[in-house]
Design a protein that fits this description.
- The chain is α+β, with helices and mostly antiparallel strands.
- Helix 1 packs across helix 13 (340-373) and helix 3 crosses helix 8 (230-244).
- It has 15 helices and 11 strands.
- The protein is elongated and about 100 Å long.
């Protein structure tokens, strides 16, 4: 075997230019696919982390009240029992967030715009200021007062500038009409995602407009230290909540509905009274992003197969030329006692070594490219910020996928050389020695 491999390596080194071109074509395909897989590997993690910062949590708990007079009200009036359940679960969150949100209509200069307004406790949600990129203004107005941060599309629609007063029409927690007066504290960059449709204010002022007490709120969020703990932590918290509180089932069986939509539908379709709590996770919110990862992985395989298919044509033609150029050499080896199987194995060993060289070069090139790309600061003021980690591209290559792709490369390369190699092995020694090539 050692002699066979040394001979194959010597044969490849005799045609350096040809070897470099073929292995380079294989390397290019491996590099492209590895970079795509590396991006897909960190895609979901980055999306989850960025949305976790914007939505102020990885696990969310909401309280829903129902009575005959007021219908359903989303509110958490007393979170003592919730906090006790979280403590019993043993889940350690980086911090808890309490938010009050409302759907309102912004009115300025005779123009209107519908807007979701999130009331946050800015003394706790310091990370939110790192994810919201302000084009103008500051966060000072929303920390203590009636300041409002709106996205660039809303500001353009209403022709708002920092410092402008704006009215907001909304409904209180009991469904009554109310009007609040805000002052534009900042205008944020529009990333083209949900964040661009959301305005931010101080929770205490939103509570005042909703006519609920200062300590009450509408959503409790838990931001965890590790994204891999989301589902396990949610299960543990839900188990403790279910032991002492009335809760909605986490995974309603509805094959035709998004899990979040199905969860929210329970409040309308089930018979109950009093206070119920629902728990859901960021993984369920971004479940569609998981499909994107699947698609990216599938695309990478298709790209690899297409590139390898093109490369196979070159490899097949090259090995046909090699066979033609080495007919007398093949005849000599056969005359000296080399069997058909050994000639076939020699050519296949050359193809195997060609594939290995291409794979190694492709992996090295991919590693270098990913290292370079990860050094460039793209920034948070970009439509693709949700795909980045702190404004940088990140890559995570999964060994299992890389092994699959390397196996495909080897199989395609060896298959491309099979027929020319088999033909070479079947050349009669006498005819091969008579050749003038």
């Amino acid at each position: 075997m050692g002699t066979l491999l040394r001979t194959a390596l010597r044969n490849l080194s005799r045609q350096k230019r040809r070897t470099v071109l073929l292995s380079g074509a294989i390397a290019f395909g491996v590099m492209v696919v590895t970079v795509i897989n590396g991006f897909a590997g960190s895609f979901l993690e980055n999306v989850t982390e960025n949305f976790g910062q914007l939505l102020a949590g990885h696990i969310f708990i909401e309280g829903v009240e129902r009575d005959e007079d007021r219908g359903e009200i989303q509110i958490i009036r007393d979170d003592e029992a919730l906090l006790a359940a979280i403590e019993r679960s043993g889940v350690n969150a980086r911090f808890l967030t309490r938010r009050s949100d409302v759907r309102g209509t912004l009115v300025f200069g005779g123009r209107t715009a519908s807007q979701q307004i999130v009331g946050a406790d800015w003394s706790v949600e310091s990370a939110l200021t790192e994810r919201i990129v302000l084009e103008e203004g500051s966060f000072d107005g929303v920390r203590n007062g009636n300041g409002l941060i709106v996205g660039r599309p809303t500001a353009n629609l209403l022709r708002l500038e920092v410092g402008d007063p704006v009215l907001v029409r909304l409904r209180t927690i009991n469904g009554q009409q109310n009007v609040g007066e805000f002052r534009i504290s900042g205008i944020s960059f529009d990333p083209g995602f949900v964040a661009g449709l959301t305005a931010y204010a101080d929770r205490s002022y939103i509570n005042e407009l909703l006519q609920i007490d200062a300590q009450e709120y509408r959503q409790l969020g838990l931001l965890l230290s590790t994204l891999t703990e989301i589902d396990e932590s949610a299960d543990r918290i839900f188990e403790e909540m279910a032991a002492t509180l009335d809760v909605f089932e986490r995974s309603p069986e509805d094959a035709d509905t998004n899990p979040i939509s199905a969860l929210f539908d329970q409040a309308r379709t089930e018979e109950w009274e009093g206070v119920r709590y629902r728990l859901y996770t960021l993984n369920e919110i971004v479940s569609d992003a998981q499909q994107i990862v699947v698609v990216l992985n599938q695309v990478s395989v298709v790209v690899l197969v297409v590139l390898l298919g093109i490369t196979m044509i070159g490899i097949t033609n090259t090995f046909r030329m090699v066979m033609f150029e080495r007919i007398r050499e093949i005849g000599t080896m056969r005359a000296l006692g080399m069997q058909k199987a050994q000639v076939l194995a020699l050519f296949l060993a050359e193809a195997l070594m060609l594939a290995v060289l291409g794979v190694l070069a492709g992996l090295l090139a991919a590693a270098a490219l990913m290292a370079v790309l990860s050094q460039f600061y793209i920034g948070l003021d970009t439509p693709i910020f949700v795909l980045l980690k702190d404004g940088y591209f990140t890559f995570r290559v999964r060994p299992g996928q890389s092994l699959l792709h390397m196996t495909l490369v080897v199989l395609f390369t060896v298959s491309a050389a099979w027929f020319p190699a088999r033909r070479a092995s079947e050349l009669p020694p006498v005819e091969a020695l008579r050749s003038t090539n």
